[in-house]
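User: Hi! I have a protein structure encoded as tokens and I'd like to know what sequence might fold into it. I'm fairly new to this, so please keep things simple.
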């Protein structure tokens, strides 16, 4: 089980959180067309390594978080608020 360090509540089990998706992708503009939205919703690279994700702490502070997590080891490198930029580079 993942232990996610919430900046406001401290370290909590992953059962208190809900995965909300890839935080590294940008939503297309409203006038981008159906093909752009189709690609945004359905096409994923499924890359190996460090990944920035959205997580919602629904059973705690109810805040949206950016979590930097490794896709193989599930190691968590950083947790920030939604407006913050996570640290760049390798751990």
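Assistant: Happy to help. Inverse folding works backwards from shape to sequence: for each of the 91 positions I chose a residue that suits the local structure. Here it is:
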């Amino acid at each position: 089980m993942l232990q996610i360090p919430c900046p406001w509540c401290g370290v909590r089990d992953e059962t208190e959180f809900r995965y909300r998706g890839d935080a590294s992708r940008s939503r297309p503009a409203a006038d981008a067309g159906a093909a752009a939205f189709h690609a945004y919703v359905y096409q994923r690279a499924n890359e190996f390594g460090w990944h920035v994700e959205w997580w919602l702490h629904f059973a705690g502070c109810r805040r949206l978080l950016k979590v930097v997590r490794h896709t193989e080891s599930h190691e968590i490198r950083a947790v920030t608020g939604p407006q913050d930029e996570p640290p760049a580079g390798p751990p």
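A useful reference point when you look it over: The CA atoms of residues 18 and 58 lie 7 Å apart. Feel free to ask if any position seems puzzling.
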